[in-house]
Design a protein that fits this description.
There is one protein chain. 69% of the residues lie in helices and 1% in strands. The protein is mainly alpha-helical. It has a domain of 225 residues: Orthogonal Bundle (MetI-like fold), CATH 1.10.3720. Helix 7 packs across helix 10. The mean pLDDT is 84.
């Protein structure tokens, strides 16, 4: 009787032999890969060393602008204007309040992960936004009031993105369910809203919220322009979230709906306990993609007179004492946007692995 033996895989060599083995396997396995690897290494040689020289080795990190002698980046501009990039026009003696909110956000995320009681989590999620708003805006418990016109920089960017993401998510789910509803009027309203909002750019929504919306109010009624921007961004993002969630709902087999009905669950019980968890798990990559797009679209709040971190570059460069420093400002802002978006992307991957039930 014939017998079959399985060859054991040879372990990869270690040390310098391991490096050579890795290079042969991954970069120089054949002629085509070798040519592509050489071209890639040449492009890296042309770009990375000059970039590092400009950003780090030849950069100016301290002193005054009169003492700049190197040809690299003049990071003294970022250091000098750092508070404006982060806080905008927020009073300097009150910077402890946004800093406290940032620390509370970290504590809030840790608490959500540690707490096991769902009721405690819900209470915490409901109270946390009010605590953050009171700390930043003031006017309560003896805190000095800071008008929203003074909010700006990275603080405003994160605030607009966070409110847009958190508020648009449940609205988008409701719109997605309404679009699939059996009630004709509800379905028509949801479809009309989604298609209308997705058919116009965000800048138009913000312009209407800033200029057109106040025309419907009586004289003397003031509507904060930051609140108008938040409402416009939330409704705009909700339409896109609705389409992403709808795609996840359509991917759920019909048998799951029938199973929920067979268990005697009501429509909302079946949706909350069976259908939506599966649909949202499928939709995680697209949801995070929409959230990242929203984070980058916050730069459009400049159209209504709000100065986010990108707008602060142009504003600070208008200082006659610091003319010609746009490049350093835009590079700094680019790095911040990349770090934030990359962090969101990596966090979404960790959520996907956590809820992966295929293995």
């Amino acid at each position: 009787m014939a017998t079959y033996t399985m060859k054991e895989a040879k372990p990869a060599p270690s040390g310098s032999k391991g490096i050579i083995f890795w290079l042969k396997t991954n970069l120089f396995s054949d002629v085509r890969n070798s040519l592509l690897s050489l071209v890639g290494l040449y492009l890296i040689y042309l770009t990375i060393p000059p970039l590092l020289n400009w950003m780090i080795f030849d950069a100016t990190w301290s002193g005054t602008q009169d003492e700049v002698v190197n040809s690299g980046a003049r990071w003294i501009f970022i250091i000098e204007k750092f508070d404006q990039f982060i806080y905008g026009f927020y009073p300097e003696h009150l910077h402890w309040r946004p800093n406290l909110v940032a620390m509370l956000c970290v504590a809030f995320l840790i608490a959500l992960k540690v707490l096991k009681n769902n009721k405690s989590k819900i209470v915490l999620m409901l109270l946390f936004p009010f605590v953050c708003f009171i700390l930043i805006s003031g006017g309560w418990f003896g805190l000095e009031t800071v008008e929203t016109e003074k909010w700006g920089g990275l603080m405003l960017t994160i605030l607009v993105a966070a409110v847009g993401i958190i508020a648009s998510f449940p609205i988008g789910i409701v719109l997605a369910l309404g679009r699939q509803s059996d009630m004709p009027i509800l379905r028509t309203l949801c479809i009309g809203f989604i298609e209308f909002v997705r058919g116009v750019p965000l800048i138009t929504i913000l312009f209407m919220a800033s200029v057109v919306l106040p025309l419907f109010f009586h004289d003397g009624i003031e509507f904060d322009k930051l609140l108008r921007a938040l409402i416009g961004i939330t409704l705009f993002q909700a339409a896109y979230i609705a389409e992403v969630v709808r795609g996840g709902l359509q991917a759920i087999p019909k048998g799951q709906y029938e199973a929920s009905e067979a268990l005697g669950l009501s429509y909302w019980q079946g949706m909350i306990l069976i259908i939506l968890p599966q649909a949202l798990k499928i939709s995680i990559p697209n949801l995070v993609g929409s959230f990242i797009s929203l984070f980058k679209d916050t730069t459009l709040v400049l159209i209504i007179g709000l100065f986010d971190i990108l707008a602060m570059v142009t504003l600070t460069n208008s200082d006659t004492n610091w003319l010609g420093y746009e490049v350093e400002g835009y590079v700094f802002v680019t790095l911040i946007y990349w770090v934030c978006c990359f962090t969101m992307s990596q966090y979404s991957k960790s959520i996907e692995r956590k809820f992966n039930t295929e293995h």
